[in-house]
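QUALITY CONTROL LOG
STEP: pairwise intake check
CHECKER ROLE: data steward
CRITERIA: each record must contain a sequence immediately followed by its structure tokens, with no blank fields

ENTRY 1 OF 2
RESULT FIELD BELOW
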Amino acid sequence: MNRTAGRPGVVLPAALAVAAVSLALLTPFFSDPSSGAPSGASSSAAPSGGERGRAPADVRVERRGERDHVLTFASAALGRQGRVRVLLPEGWKPGSGPWPVLYLLDGCCRPAPDSWLTEGDAARLTSPYPVITVMPEGGTVGFYSDWRRGPRWETFHLTEVRAILERDYGAGDRRAVAGLSMGGFGAISYAARHPGMFRAAASFSGVLDSTQSAPWLLERHGEDVGDLWGPPGGAEQVAHNPVALTSKLAGVRLYVSCGDGSPGPLDDPPAARDGGEATLLAQSREFVRRAGGDGLEVTADFYGPGTHSWPYWRRALERSLPLLMDAVGAGG
């Protein structure tokens, strides 16, 4: 079913004091388990809606505010340190939960997991909702997949990060996922490839046909296309391609938005026509057509003029949040 969204004095002691504060901000999230506070000790996780995962034992937490945590840990999936940004809901405290979870996935070409905060206004937009918001790094062109030869991003996000959230933050099994551009690909692909894991998924200007856009992006960044899914057009690429996965999204509430690439009301003049956004609109329309054919519940916001840029994705998050939050039981 297709629906159109609305527009809606002494130097040494002072130095020691500063060092102590800095150390406190960067220490792993350890505490006495008997206190009911989050523990950094390793434990098995058996979450629903996917494979078992074991949370990494040592997670370093930098507290940038009462609500804002930056997590760093040794990721076996990435073969290096992984980084995640977490926003906690009002009323969260150690031992509380289970809390609904919203994953926000970034687009290509940004290795740090901060863009949804610095440009997407995620802290303000999610603050009214009782939900843990998680923003993991996704690689320059990671494509939210376990590479044949390279990092295992899917395992990093859906096994390692998820296990940490459940063990240390009281995350439950009511999850939604949203992303922009390459992150839109990740949101839909993750929901389809892991039945029961996500109750809702949203794509903002998403790469929803990976046979068209992924090879160009990979080659542009010096990556061998075969290192990701193997030969182009092969079974593994199809198994990750959103437009080919609509039949696997039964029960998932879907939100798809995209502009047509012409300069719009949120662009700074003079703005040029954005051919990339126009290409993604065609992909989004085809995804919605196929999803409708499979009887899926889709909210489509093809808002006309608009380029491939943050003002539109920020607006898309704001417009889609009521649907996403309703799906995970966190609506107002």
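ENTRY 2 OF 2
RESULT FIELD BELOW
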Amino acid sequence: MGLKNLSNKRFELKKYSAVSLSHKLIDKNIFPIINIDKSFENVLNYQIKSLKPDKLLIREPIYDNEIKILNKIENSFKSLEIVKIPLQSLINHKEFIESYGFPETFSKFRKIVEKNNLILNPIDTKKNFIDFKVRSNLNKEYERIVDIEKFSIKDFINYLKKHVKSYKETRDQIHGQNISSQLSVPLSLGILSPRRIVKLINEYEKNVLSNQSTYWLKFELLWREYFKLLGFYHGSRIFNPKGISQNENVIQHPEVYDWSKLEFKDDLVFSINEQLVKTGYITNRARQIFASYFINNLKLSWLSGARYFKSYLMDYDTETNYGNWMYIAGVGTDPRGGRVFNLEKQKNVYDPNMEYRKKWQI
């Protein structure tokens, strides 16, 4: 599948999740913006002028560019009521910060969430969607949104039944069949609630099996949530060359904007890049290896690496992407500083027979 097709597919899915699938504030005669464009500001302007709505429901803006766009919309459409709604996440970010502050490490965050049972219950999507009668074609879009969510849930339940028991052993691999839950795509597109996933895992643990693997799957969801909280708390600082670090001595490598000039001379990193560019997906371990090479071997800015991933990843998610790159670069919350991966060790552990490298170097 070509890069253009990958990109189109990603945004085709995103247009069906442009409105949150999980909140209670969808009122009668309000329908989702289902068109998507390169410029979100242009999409909003076009839809508001065309549909002349009384109210706009939108995710609570976090970053400076989002706030700037929303301010423009507010100034351009004075009579439009804008309701800002937090994204559905595992916890209530605002209440968490008010009660506990921002935990400087993931470990502290995890212990607070688990000790105080802070994970929220999922909200039924279908009950909270209206039957869009204002425009007949929207009925089909509504059905498709619900169908995509159903498919994602069904797919995950199948994973629980067949493969979750070995998740802890396979989660760190770079290739192979059924080595991960494959939740990153529906989560990044907003078509599956992380709360619902946790609930399904809890039910599975109660009725079928509870082991280290089922716990580690929830553990990974908590890591994702920690990065979401980090973005909520620090805002646009996550796009700063120094990240959220207070260290004035952070080494700032040069940025790169022309991807064609990048050279990946190591055979493992070359293979990882080939898979990323050709498929739009690489495993978490592969992302860490690539990021370490990009920062520590090529001596390039971690921000450039984060933008590089943004260009190609099918499951791109702002907070997770920038949070992980900061983590490897040592400008995030990791108390041990940056991470440098020994490439020869990674090859010996994760691709000893060169199966992965042979596959992607053809």
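INTAKE CHECK: passed for both entries
DESCRIPTIVE NOTE, ENTRY 2: Residues 1-31, 126-138 have pLDDT under 50 and may be disordered.
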